[in-house]
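As a warm-up, study this chain.
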Amino acid sequence: MKKIASISAFVLAASTIAYAQTAPFDMSGEREQGSTPMVPRLTLPAAPAPATVPQTSVAPTSPAPSATPAPAEPPRPQSAAPVGPAPAEAPPPVRQRTADALRRFVIPFTKFGLDGEYDRKSWSVYITPEQAAAPAKFNFSYQNAVVVAPEASELTVLLNNRIVGQQQIGSSDAPSNVSFDVPVGLLQPGANLLTFEATQRHRTDCTVQSTYELWSDIDPAKTYLSFSGQEAAKFSSTDAIRAIGVDETGRTQFNLVVPALQQPGTTKPLLRLAQGLAVLSGMPNQTFSFSPSSLPQPGAGRMTVVVGTPAELQPVITPPPAAQTAPSASFVTDPKSGAPILLISGPSWPAISSAIDTIVSPTDRPATAVRDTLATQRWSAPDAPLVLSDTNLTFSQLGVKTAEFSGRRFRTNFNIGVPSDFYANAYGDATVLLDAAYTQNILPGSHIDIYVNGNIASTVPISSTGGGIFRHLPIRVTMRHFKPGLNTLSLEAILMTKEDEVCVPGTTAGAAPRFALFDTSEIHIPDFARIGQRPNLAGLSGTAYPYNRATQPTPLFIDMIDSDTLSATATLLGQMAVAAGRPLDMEPAATPGAIGERDAIFIGSISQMPAAVLTQLNIATTSQASWQPPAATQSNQTEPSVSFDDWRSKVSGGVWRGQITSFQEWLRRNFDISLSSLQFVPGSEQVFTPSNAESFLIAQGKSAAGGSTWTVVTAPSANDLREGAEALTAQVNWPQVAGHITTYSSKTGKIVSVPVGRFDFVTSQPWSISNYRLIAANWLSTNILSYAFLLVVLSLLIGVTTAGMLSRLGRRE
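Now compare it with the structure written out below.
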């Protein structure tokens, strides 16, 4: 009996020791059951954890299904789900949300993820004084690729450059919810910097290609700050407009309720209000909606704005008594929902315009004032510096931190802005002065690449062995991919070692740093040519050019004042105001004839657009009848006729056209030459006819006399106009507005730009020899035949002059 008892005790002890060991490597996934990640198992004490848990502790991922709350766990590493019921006195999970908590969604994107072996993204979240004073928790949900090694991968969240949470990346089977307390006093009234940083390593592969398989997606609908107490939901001043934030899809919406929407004289102040709200919030995906009567449903990322005189507002909401005699602009509480409403009222519409000015005036600045940054911090911090001339910027100024890296592919991004009259895409070169280091393990064949707006701009090979330190290593970066407005530059280091070629199991993590990037690195932007171009939709999307430079009100022709058309107009002008950094002064024009020779904007459905304006911008006037929404044309579609003659022409010319296309591609690939540059005079613009698959169009061209810029924004119907404006002004789509015409399809989401064939120069800077020299250099670089012809003419002139001089010199016999 004693022998049996001894054997049982031995087996029980061995089982306990085995249970305490680290879980074995399993390629089937990191998670054992439910959403609990596979992590090293630790034995837990019987008593609950002490109350003094560090503020940076991370809540466990989704617990095992149980009605009993789980006990508190050590902050890191995480333990597996405990066996057996939890003690009755155990505290509830930290992600539990009280009934009166306010949720502030914080991701300003529809989709958000961290990719590769190292990724870091930062933006600012505006917090009201009431929210900064309230207890707060940060909550997020994430899921990662199955190939991410949890033992060597980590997700870090920082608030105002302070680490407030770290999470081992190990949630490939299902999303995991994480929550932690925000330290008291960390959040401040105003802008607060939020940063997500991920370090990820592959489970089994050591190649550079495998790093593209690494990702961690963070769910915007489950990522938010929660504030306790009812005070956090209150807005004490109109400055709280900046704290509107986003909804669970990363969008921001202003709902304007205006009973006198269609009355004359209300359009101008309402559009000024919309632009002011857009600039104050600064959000990347904001839309505007107008309604004459009912109050919309409140929600996150939404703000209701009620505008009108007390008499007009009686059916909607009761205005304050002060609005009977004086302008009034303040937040009030909706008696039905309890949500804050921005109420703007006054005894008359001139008084209402005065109240609107009290809100918008802080965003005003003179058209001639020079700004030094582009406002990007609401989706990409810090604000992008606007480079106007010869400038040196350090990486630390651009938000790039010093980093040590132990993987195979290191990538970091930063933003730079250039003005709307930028004209150096054919000859200009910037220079990155790189401060970096690499170890002796790095093999020749490794390289450092620079990208501009997703296009490769420069490559520097690493050819030496034994390691090295770069001290202001100059890397030339072509500026051909720069465009007016915001430009995103990326630095990527591809690092190869012998260890990666062998790839011994357990070495994929790469614990020892092999590369370092220092924030003392710089980028030098030289002086570049500056002259405006007409048409130039890239300038419109980049900085709202030319309307951002107007010193007089810009005429705005709207075909019909209805909810859809006015909503589309406000959404478009709001995005332009954000790009310009200030509200644009717009003057509604009753008729096209009242515009004259001025920069102008035309907005409306295609059937109501003046035919002369369409003709001037090379848009077929037949589109007014033929361009119809897809639903309306489906029943009228007929089978296309096909004949032998059609195919004979296609086949006979197909071989010749194919040879021309191949030759064009060969020139472009080997010499960076296009056939459009092999012409003395640019060809005339072709008349454009939108197809029925396209639902929105924005075009730009010169006025009838050629001295001004006209922009047309149109669609088959007012509803298409509104949907197209909301889609095209989204942050992911707006930079694609370029060329002479840009179209959008609501069916496919496809955006197509028609390049500019012929353009005019518009003087934007005082006359100077240096600027005109740079302008000539860029123009000749894009017009090769003209450059060659000029070179031949100058050579002949030099030869004739030299011959004439020599004929008069020397002795003659």
